[in-house]
Amino acid sequence: MAKGADKVINNMHSWADRQRAAVIALAQNWAGQLEGRAKRNAPWRDRTGNARNGLFGSTEVTGLWRNEVKIRLAHTMDYGVFLELARDGKYAILKPTVDAAVPEIWESYRNLWE
Q1: Would residue 74 be called left, alpha or beta, if left means φ above 0 and alpha means ψ between -120 and 50 degrees?
Q2: What is the pLDDT of residue 85?
Q3: CB contact at 8 A, 61 and 68
Q4: Cβ–Cβ < 8 Å for 113, 81
Q5: How far apart are CA 56 and CA 52, in angstroms?
Q6: Predicted pLDDT at 1
Q7: 60-103 confidence digits (pLDDT tens)
Q8: Alpha carbons 93 and 46: distance in angstroms, whole number
Q9: Is 81 exposed, middle or buried (0-12, 13-18, 19+ CB in 10 A)?
C-alpha cells in the first residue's frame, strides 16, 4: 500500500479512537449529571437518607466490538422498586429524571458528531 494511503488510514483510526473516547466521556458526564439531578429532585421525604444517597449514575461499554455505551441511573436500596412503582409513581425519580434529560443528551451527542 502507498505511504499516503497508510497515513490516511492511520489518521482515520486515530480520529475514530478520539471520537470513541469522547462518546464515553460524554456518557460519564451525563451519568454524573443525572445522578445529581435525581438526588436533588427526589420527591420523597428522607428518613435515613439511604434511598437518596443510594441513587447513582454509571456508564457501561458493551457490544461485540465494545461499540455500545449505556448510561444507567439506578437505586442501590432494595426498596427503590417500591419508590419507583408504588402509588402510581408518586415517589418515582429515575424515569422522570431521564425523560427530562433526553433532549439535552441527544443534543449533546449531536453536537459531538458535528
Answers
A1: beta
A2: 97
A3: yes
A4: no
A5: 9
A6: 63
A7: 999 888 889 999 999 999 999 999 999 999 999 999 999 999 99
A8: 14
A9: exposed
